[in-house]
Structures are given as C-alpha cells and as structure tokens.
Amino acid sequence: MASLRRSRPGEQTLQSRVRAKGQALVTTPVLILGIPLDFFLFGLTLLGVAIFHRHTLWIALTGLAATIAYKLMFTGFATGPGLLGLTLHLGHEWVTLTNLFLLLMGFALLSAHFEKSGIPDEMPALLPNDWRGPVVLLGIVFVLSSFLDNIAAALIGGTVARHVFRGKVHIGYLAAIVAASNAGGAGSVIGDTTTTMMWIAGVNPLSVVEAYVAAGTALLVFAVPASIQQHNFAPIVKDAPRGLRIEWVRVGIVAAILIAALAANISANVYFPDLLHRLPLLGLTIWAVLLLTAPIRRPDWKLMPSTFKGTIFLLALVVIASLMPVERLPAATWQTALGLGLVSAGFDNIPLTALALNQGGYDWGFLAYAVGFGGSMMWFGSSAGVALTNMFPEGKSVYLWLRFGWPVPVAYLIGFFALLTLVGWNPDPIR
To answer: Where are the transmembrane segments (predicted)?
Structure first.
C-alpha cells in the first residue's frame, strides 16, 4: 500500500515561485483532435505493452523517456518548467513510488517464505475436490485482502494455486485471483492503496464499507466461470505427498511481516499521519522484518532480479500516469465514478483517486469499488496484477487476459449497478 502525500508549506512556497517564474515557459500542450499529446504518448505506451508483451519493460521505459522529453521541451510540468519542475514533481511522488517498490520486492520474498512453509502443499486436502475448490480459494483471497495488502493477498493466492494445480494455472483464473484481491480490499481502508488514501484525506472509514455490496456481488459473478475454466484446464490434485511437515518458523515470519505492516499502517494513520507523507513507512516496515528474520530463515534472494524488472515496469507506468494533464475531471456523479473504474484498467488509480479527493462530491464507497476493482480488467491495471504476473509471466498478455478474463469486466458492471440499486448514490458535499 501507499499513502497520499501532502505538500509541506516550504514546498508549496517553492512551487509557487517556480510557477510564477516559469509561467511564460510552460506552454499549452500540443493538441490532437482536442486531446493533449501527453495522452497519446501514454496510449501508445500501453498499446506497445499490449502488443509486444515480451518487451514490456523497455516499452514502458521508452514511453517514460518520451513523455519526460516532450514535457521538458514543450509544456513543462504542473510544478514548473524544465528539470526543476521535474525534480519537484518527483519530490511529490517519491513516497508513493518508494513504497510500491519496497512492497512489490518485499512481498515476493514473503510469498517465497509462505511457499516453503509447507502450507500450500497441505491445501489440496482442505479445498473441495471439484470446480468448487478454486471458488473457495478465491474466497480466501478476498477475505485476506480485507485486512492485508492486496498485493500480499494476490501473491498468497497465486502461491497456493501453483501448488494445488501443480503449476498449471489458467490465465482466466489468474485474472480472477487479481480481481478477488482487489475486490476484497475495496471496502477496507487498510486493504488497498486507494482506500488508504481516502482515509488519510479525511474520509470516514465507514463510508467505504458499502463497497463490499458491489465487491461481494462481483466475486459471485466472476468466481464461478473462472473456477470452471481452471477446473477444465487443470483440476486440483488431491493426493498431497505423504510425510509433509509445516515449517512453523516460516509461518511465523510471514505472520510477523503482515502483522507489522498492519500495525504500522494503523498506528501511523491514527497517531502520526504526517509520517506517511514523509516516509515510505509500510515498505520500510516490511523490509525491516525481512532483514531481522533473515538469520533465522534466509529469504529467497534469487527471486530479486526477475521481481526487480516487473517492479520497474510498474513504476514507469505510474510515473507516466502522474505526468498526465488530468487536472480537470467531469462533475462527480455515479456515471463519472463508473467511468473512472473503466479508465483505471489502464491508467494508474493512485492519481485518479487523488484528483477525485481534491474535487470532492463523490460517494466514496462507489469510488473505492470503481478504482479499486476496475484495475483488475487489465494485468497491469493494478499493482496486484503486476506482482502476480511476475510469478506467472504467461499472464503478461492483454489479449489473453481479456479473452479468458472476460468474467471480470462483466462482474465489474454487475457489481457497480447492484450497489447503485441496493444502496444508491449518496455523495459527500463538495469539499
């Protein structure tokens, strides 16, 4: 998870001076059919990722370089022109970016600890021996994500799936695991980056609980067809090896990491909220526990090179998204919230959430579900999806994700309108 970073007074003064001095240098963006060129650069980057999914890292880095070069030469940044404007912009984003980096890298090691604990090997005996087994596993991921980070829930689900299906996990089921992790965190202020941002910004945690009406409905919709896909592709193997022993030391390490992250998140939000804006506290907490427990059980460091590549890819897309000129949004209506969810499939939901919070006037339960679950429709639409496809590289295909993960967008729409019908749109006043 990450936190919404607020500017310190000194920074605001500096930014005001830069804007004043550089106003003449920051020009109107180049428009194509009335759309800023920035969006076309981002769109071309996402298109390249979709088509050439074996070269996603270099495509993302090329798109980032092209976007930065364009803004340096022509339009400048929201924080000012030139390299100083870029530096100030990155100064705003560094906490979020560092948290994402540390979380993605750290949870890969956590997943390895969990996998070596022996618990995944025991799971076949606990899950039903037909298509209902994958359904139960998705339900477990959903519940875990309500109080854990959705990245951790997705990786734990992927680790268990790799064992119970003997490494043959269908891409449609991968999409379902990501969707379950994002849905489970949608109604909890400690379950997802976007809901944590809302909490930090002053939204009542009870205001987002209604998102579970939509998220629970969506789970019922996508879980069954995705599980049938998985059962037909590779059913659960029930004959677990004999003589298995659970390594409780590794289980304790996993529990310590998750409890420490949860405690740090709650404590900082309640007692030291400004600390979350200044330091990547959650990521540092996870790595502190990982390093402290390393003498007891050595982490699987050989995972780091491949995880690093996937993490840099995600961060490149996040930085590009933060550079887009999205200062003006349509009026806060349920139609806008529905659209933001669709956009979040390819556009990072962190800046979208920040803009919505600045604008005000949303029903925060709707927004939490939309931007939280909407990213599940694309493998790179959420950090949980990127983390899981680091574990299953075959999932890094937009075509296959959409072809076999079709229950997820269907579930998004059904869940949204279930919330609209059963609860109704009740926005907070413009803040």
So the answer is: 24-51, 94-114, 134-159, 171-191, 211-228, 248-272, 278-296, 308-326, 332-354, 366-392, 404-425
d(CA 28, CA 171): 43
The proportion of the chain whose per-residue pLDDT surpasses 70, expressed as a percent, equals 88
Q: Which helix (H) or strand (E) holds 31?
A: strand 31-32
Alpha carbons 28 and 95: distance in angstroms, whole number: 29
Integer angstrom CA distances of residue 130 from 127, 320, 408: 9, 43, 21
Instruction: Quote the CA–CA distance of 293 and 253 in Å, as a whole number.
Output: 7
Residue that the structure tokens 């849905």 belong to: 183
The span from the CA of 218 to the CA of 180, in Å, is 9
Report d(CA 389, CA 387) in Å as an integer: 6
pLDDT in tens, 172-190: 999 999 999 999 999 987 7
H or E segment and range at residue 225:
helix 211-233
* Residue whose C-alpha is closest to residue 158's, from 408, 406, 381, 390: 390
Q: Are 175 and 397 in contact (CB under 8 A)?
A: no
User: What pLDDT does residue 7 have?
Assistant: 43
In sequence order, what DSSP letters do the residues of 255-280 get, joined into one string?
A: HHHHHHHHHHHHHHHHH-HHHHHHS-
Residue closest to 31 by CA, chosen among 40, 21, 18: 40
> What DSSP character marks residue 72?
I
* pLDDT, mean over the chain: 83
Q: Output DSSP code: residue 86.
A: H
Q: Model's pTM, two decimal places?
A: 0.70
Tell me phi and psi for residue 80, to 5 degrees.
135, 175
What is the distance between the alpha carbons of residues 43 and 34, in angstroms, rounded to a whole number? 15
Backbone CA torsion sign across 120, 289, 314, 186: positive
Q: Structure tokens of 408?
A: 């997820």
Cβ atoms within 10 Å, residue 394: 12
Residue 8: pLDDT band (50, 70, 90) is very low
Distance CA 198, CA 89 (A): 21
Using alpha carbons only, what angle is made at residue 342 by residues 367 and 143, rounded to the nearest 5 degrees?
55
pLDDT value for 240: 55
Alpha helices in 272-397 (DSSP H): 273-278, 281-293, 304-322, 334-343, 349-359, 364-374, 383-391
Residue 74 pLDDT more than 50?
A: yes
Q: How confident is the model at residue 384 (pLDDT cuts 50, 70, 90)?
A: confident
Q: Does the structure show a pLDDT above 70 at 192?
A: yes
